[in-house]
Amino acid sequence: MDTMRERFAAVTSQLLDEDPRLAVVLAEIGMDGFTGAARRHPDRVVNVGIREQLMIGVGGGLALTGMRPVVHTFAAFLVERPFEQVKLDFGHQGTGGVLVSAGASHDWPAGGYTHMSPGDVALLDTLDGWTVHVPGHPEEAEALLRRAAGAGNDKVYVRLSLQSNQAPQPVNGAGFLTVRQGSPGAPVVVAVGPLLDNVRTGTEGLDVTLLYATTVRPFDAAALRAAVAGPTADVVLVEPYLAGTSTAAVNEALADVPHRVLALGTGRKELRRYGEPHEHIAAHGLDPASLRSSVTAFTGG
């Protein structure tokens, strides 16, 4: 199976052939995936070099001319380093584009903390109007990328990961899916993107309703409310980025329902040993055994 990032390069190269409005902006990273597309469309595959702020500025400038820019690099260099440009060149200017990240929380531990960005979605949450997709499988990544590229003037962030679920779900960018239905009033577990398999394994045999989220902004409040069948609610959030990123969205969705929230995700403490991705997943309590322990302790079994 190809990775989400490999699928991104293949799909976006195809879309460049089909849509003259599309342009790709890179800062060296990822350029190898667009070698053929750059030969076919030298004016619409732009490599600015190792200048991430300029990369965002070029994307915003292309959007002002009516183009649909797709901007790609590691999340730390796409969201954190040029955040002011994201805020101004897209938000303040009223333009749209597609930011596609790789790396994110702990996909490449050997790169160290400079190449990790567990707070990317939380940071974008400080801005208005961003749609955020977090696919859990290359097939889902393709569907969400095609949706994002074809949007009119929307601001879209697509967060790709090396971690992937075994099988894709029929996502369309419109809300959460119900993967497992618990009894009336059962706790609701919201699994985001590539953590679905770990959550599904970790909660096997437990009486919970399991929702799957690949589009986390806007947050599907209606699906969460529909899953809550009792006068009170226990909600467990399992996110592959900073723990608690969506807690405020849950609280807003259930403002009139007495509820508790357990927020699981990447912790704030920096893990200074490189290790491997699966070791970081376990260290943050996102492996199946740790998830089961956390959920049962929170819900009382």
TrEMBL record:
CDD domains named among the record's database cross-references: TPP_PYR_DXS_TK_like (cd07033)
Transketolase-like pyrimidine-binding domain location: 2-168
Source organism per UniProt: Streptomyces sodiiphilus
PANTHER family per record: PYRUVATE DEHYDROGENASE E1 COMPONENT, TRANSKETOLASE-LIKE PYRIMIDINE-BINDING DOMAIN-CONTAINING PROTEIN
Pfam families documented for this protein: Transket_pyr
Spans through the membrane: none
Name of the protein in its database record: Transketolase
UniProt cross-references to InterPro entries, sorted A to Z: PDH/Transketolase, THDP-binding, Transketo_C/PFOR_II, Transketolase-like_Pyr-bd
